[in-house]
């Protein structure tokens, strides 16, 4: 109890009976109410989220509303605002600041993303223009490790596909960022899978509490101490790579042309320091590994739920492999010919996106929109990407998994190069949109197709008896499939290997 119960309580009596704990609880309540009031005051829009489950968000479809999150609110805008907002540079509307807030970057060592954009420059200026070159390299890493990750058994074997997908993607990404040897380095592979997990764990635990408690709580979280360990080990690995690169450059020897090397050669000022290079590589693991591995896992869950798509996809894989038998041609020309697979991936991501709100931005300056809306500096904004994709005016029968929707749209004259997985648009926000749309998406889609070709080509896959599509879990705006879900795989025999885009790589 907070107050004393004398018949005529004096102020001094009351104060003297308040304990330290009660003062703490009282301050907490005052701060919560105060921060709630401050948030309410910024943009005049209704709130959704912490009201009842039947909050009619569709009423706000073409307008704006707030979604509450304990660590700060987000203003959700209709995609009608996208045309106007998508061209703002990150100095006005910043994705990096939004992600920094999401992952509680101050406590998860991510401040490098606010210092410079070398990590996005390397993807836009090196990885994407040379995506075939790098996809080929990542395919080699995948093919090399394939049977150590997937059982080559003709009997049905239970496979934890999410874990296998993470291991595959870690190798494929590692080969491109840090080189072929590092893609085999179990220590790095382990860091690149665990670092994102411990970052998300730290961030989600902090996000359950108001911001002012974070400095204290962050000191108590085991996941944050694990991050420190990963960072020490990553530092040693990256330092060796930096030293080796410098030696080669000084000796005039050919370098491996990794993305780390490009960053070292193009770094300005402190961007090239070990501390920044290490942090940047680790931030890139956050962006690249789990997103891609989740997309792959969902593709297999959808294939099991809709086995009628296996044969058409296999036929397409076989015909493209026949047409482009060498690895190089397969990657450079064949992948984009996998139109049914591309469409399957669009549909899989539509129903199972990794996040419900995309793109997300933080206003770094006050913006006045054409309709008179004023977005004060510091406001978090986001677009309801999942709701848009599942709106029947955008996707007819949105609850139906119709894998070849985009494929059919592409058959209309003039539409061949539209409706593809890498494309972003007002109604396709899975990779964000505008100037800051995902810079790794061309590589991600190439990776996913390479892996799907090989696994769908070589394996049968199914749920075990009675199993249905794994449950989906939601954590704020993030979406995860059941982490314990398993699938059954069976190798189709040596004959199937030749028709899976495997190419000439010895395994
Ligand atoms: C299926 C896999 C992936 C999905 C669904 C995905 C999704 C996204 C989304 C929604 C954004 C925010 C874009 C925006 O705000 O407009 C983003 C940003 C980003 N992505 Fe991806 N991504 C994937 C794979 C990758 C890969 C493989 C890489 C690296 C090779 C990567 C690197 C990045 C980076 C660095 C950013 C931040 C860009 C910035 O701050 O300007 N992503 N991604």
Automatic annotation (TrEMBL):
Heme binds at residue 438. The keyword Membrane applies. Keywords: Heme, Iron, Membrane, Metal-binding, Monooxygenase, Oxidoreductase, Transmembrane, Transmembrane helix. GO terms for molecular function: heme binding; iron ion binding; monooxygenase activity; oxidoreductase activity, acting on paired donors, with incorporation or reduction of molecular oxygen. The chain crosses the membrane at residues 12-38. Coiled coil: none annotated. Its cofactor is heme. InterPro entries: Cyt_P450, Cyt_P450_E_grp-IV, Cyt_P450_sf. It comes from the Eukaryota. The keyword Metal-binding applies. Pathway: Mycotoxin biosynthesis. Belongs to the cytochrome P450 family. This is Cytochrome P450 monooxygenase. It comes from Polyplosphaeria fusca.
């Amino acid at each position: 109890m907070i107050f004393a119960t004398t018949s005529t309580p004096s102020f001094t009596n009351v104060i003297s009976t308040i304990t330290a704990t009660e003062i703490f609880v009282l301050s907490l309540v005052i701060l919560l109410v105060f921060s709630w009031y401050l948030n309410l005051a910024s943009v005049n829009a209704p709130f959704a989220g912490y009201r009842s489950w039947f909050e009619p968000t569709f009423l706000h479809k073409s307008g704006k509303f707030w979604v509450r999150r304990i660590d700060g609110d987000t203003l959700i805008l209709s995609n009608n605002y996208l045309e106007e907002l998508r061209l703002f540079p990150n100095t006005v509307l910043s994705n990096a600041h939004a992600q920094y807030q999401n992952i509680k970057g101050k406590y998860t060592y991510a401040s490098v993303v606010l210092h410079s954009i070398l990590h996005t420059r390397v993807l836009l200026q090196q990885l994407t223009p040379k995506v075939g070159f790098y996809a080929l390299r990542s395919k080699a890493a995948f093919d090399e490790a394939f049977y150590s990750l997937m059982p080559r058994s003709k009997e049905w074997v239970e496979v934890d596909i999410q874990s296998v997908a993470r291991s595959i993607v870690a190798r494929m990404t590692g080969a491109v960022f840090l080189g072929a040897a590092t893609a085999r380095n179990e220590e790095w592979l382990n860091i690149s899978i665990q670092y994102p997990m411990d970052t998300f764990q730290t961030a989600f635990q902090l996000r359950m509490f108001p911001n002012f408690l974070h400095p204290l709580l962050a000191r108590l979280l085991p996941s944050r101490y694990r991050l420190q360990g990963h960072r020490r080990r990553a530092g040693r690995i990256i330092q060796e790579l930096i030293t080796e690169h410098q030696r080669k450059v000084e000796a005039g020897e050919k370098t491996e042309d990794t993305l780390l090397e490009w960053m070292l050669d193009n770094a300005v000022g402190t961007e090239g320091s070990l501390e920044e290079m290490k942090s940047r590589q680790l931030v890139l693991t956050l962006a690249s590994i789990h997103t891609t591995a989740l997309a792959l896992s969902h593709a297999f869950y959808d294939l099991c739920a809709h086995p009628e798509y296996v044969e058409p996809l296999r036929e397409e894989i076989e015909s493209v492999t026949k047409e482009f038998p060498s690895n190089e041609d397969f990657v450079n020309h064949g992948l984009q010919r996998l139109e049914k697979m591309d469409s399957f991936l669009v549909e899989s991501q539509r129903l199972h996106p990794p996040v419900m709100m995309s793109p997300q931005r933080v206003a770094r300056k006050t913006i006045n929109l054409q309709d008179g809306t004023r977005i004060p500096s510091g406001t978090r904004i986001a677009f309801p990407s999942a709701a848009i994709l599942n709106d029947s005016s955008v996707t007819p029968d949105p609850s139906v998994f119709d894998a070849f929707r985009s494929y059919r749209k592409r058959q209309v004259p003039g539409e061949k190069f539209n409706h593809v997985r890498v494309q972003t648009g007002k109604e396709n926000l899975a990779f964000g949109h505008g100037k800051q749309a995902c810079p790794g998406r061309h590589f991600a889609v190439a990776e996913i197709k390479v892996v799907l070709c090989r696994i769908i080509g070589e394996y049968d896959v199914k749920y075990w008896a009675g199993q249905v599509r794994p449950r989906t879990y939601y954590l704020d705006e993030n979406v995860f499939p059941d982490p314990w879900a398993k699938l059954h795989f069976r190798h189709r025999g040596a004959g199937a290997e030749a028709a899976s885009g495997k190419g000439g790589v010895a395994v």
